[in-house]
Amino acid sequence: MKSVVIEQPGELVLADRPLPAPAAGEVRVKVQFASICGSDVHIWHGHNPFAKYPRVIGHEFFGLIDAVGEGVDASRVGERVAVDPVVSCGHCYPCSIGRPNVCKELQVIGVHRDGGFSEFAVAPAKNAFRLPASIPDKLASMVEPFTIAANITAFLKPQPNDIALIYGAGPMGLTAIQVLKGVYGVEQVLVVDRLPERLALAQENGADRVFNNSDIPLAAQLEGVQPTLIIDAACHPSILAESAALASPAARIGLLGFSGEPCSITQQALTSKELSLFTSRLNSNRFPQVIEWMEKGLIQPEKLVTHYFPLAEIERAMTLFEKDPRTCCKVILHMG
Ligand code: NAI
Ligand code: MN
Ligand code: ZN
Questions:
Q1: What is the position in ligand 1's atom list of the atom closest to the CA of 37?
Q2: Which of 2, 102, 288, 324 is 20 to 30 A away from residue 267, measured at CA?
Q3: Residue 173, class by beta-carbon neighbours within 10 Å (0-12 exposed, 13-18 middle, 19+ buried)?
Q4: Residue range 155-179: average pLDDT?
Q5: Helix axes 171-178, 196-204, angle to 10 degrees
């Protein structure tokens, strides 16, 4: 089978690999579509501290179950599935309280183990979620990115009367906009980015007001409006302090970033307004929820997708995705 392998940092190859057999409790998926994420690019360039090489990348993928391992119901063969990349032990403290995404032995498919930029991929059977016919094949890999927004909003508990502010109108910011508007009915969703093209996408995805902070700081443009819910989907370390300064008293702030650089902020900036800070990593069992949102039409994954490429053009697809955020948002690989 053909697989996208990062042999070592910087070295991407489309390799011929032996077809994997599903182990006990696993399924094998004949991958149909897979979407590119920033973390795939990071693994390629050696910027993901969790990645082990060589690695088949890809953690956002959809396909058909074509084989099952021991103990898995053979009737699952043929099922259309989206695969949750979070593989957890099931018995550590975070697992025991329903947070497998921060399992002590967390294995992320496409990061710690081989992923979905491949003609076939194996995964635990319980990670393969059956999709209703109403979710088309070519959008089904978009379940995973929406689970990130599902996870952070579960902490933030958005309310219709919130004034939400989202930093960054990349895929993460856009999925957050859609979930705040379409699922939670938040009346005011404000979005800030530096790229006008991304802000235009934010509007298409439901943002009520957009701000470009490339020349004028956001504070000067908000005219005293104090957001009550803030999501940092741009993830520069300076954003936490700015968010705290802009936030309404009693606001909630959600962080998604993985920067190793310190954020500089005083206790006073947080405590004087009694701000709540939440962090969110990947997703904790959110696939069923997002599948339901898509089925009900509460979210529109197609609004993020700008390009489709065949698997053979992986390097071109990843390069475009990385270098051209003005024209490019979600890029989906077609395996067939
Ligand atoms: P992206 O790079 O496509 O989007 C980021 C956007 O933020 C860009 O449009 C950029 O112009 C904008 N931006 C950058 N600095 C800004 C600033 N100071 N003010 C306003 N806008 C600014 O990335 P994507 O895929 O949307 O991911 C965003 C972040 O989320 C990344 O840092 C990524 O590591 C993180 N992430 C976290 C996950 C989690 O589970 N916690 C999962 C996936 C991504
Ligand atoms: Mn992703
Ligand atoms: Zn665990």
A1: 25
A2: 102
A3: buried
A4: 99
A5: 30
| b/e code 46-82 from CB counts within 10 Å (16+ = b) | eebeebeeebbbbbbbbbbbbbbbeebeeeeeebbbb
> Of all atoms in ligand 1, which is nearest to the CA of residue 101?
40
* Residue 50 reports pLDDT greater than 90: no
Ligand closest to the CA atom of residue 216: 1
Task: Pick the closest to residue 64 from 115, 161, 140 (CA basis).
Answer: 140
Whether the pTM exceeds 0.90: the reply is yes
Would you say the CB of residue 168 lies under 6 angstroms from ligand 1? yes
Q: Is the pLDDT of residue 49 over 90?
A: no
Q: Give every CB contact of residue 308 below 8 A, 6+ residues apart in sequence.
A: 138, 331, 332, 333, 334
For 96, residues 6+ apart whose C-beta sits below 8 A from its C-beta are none
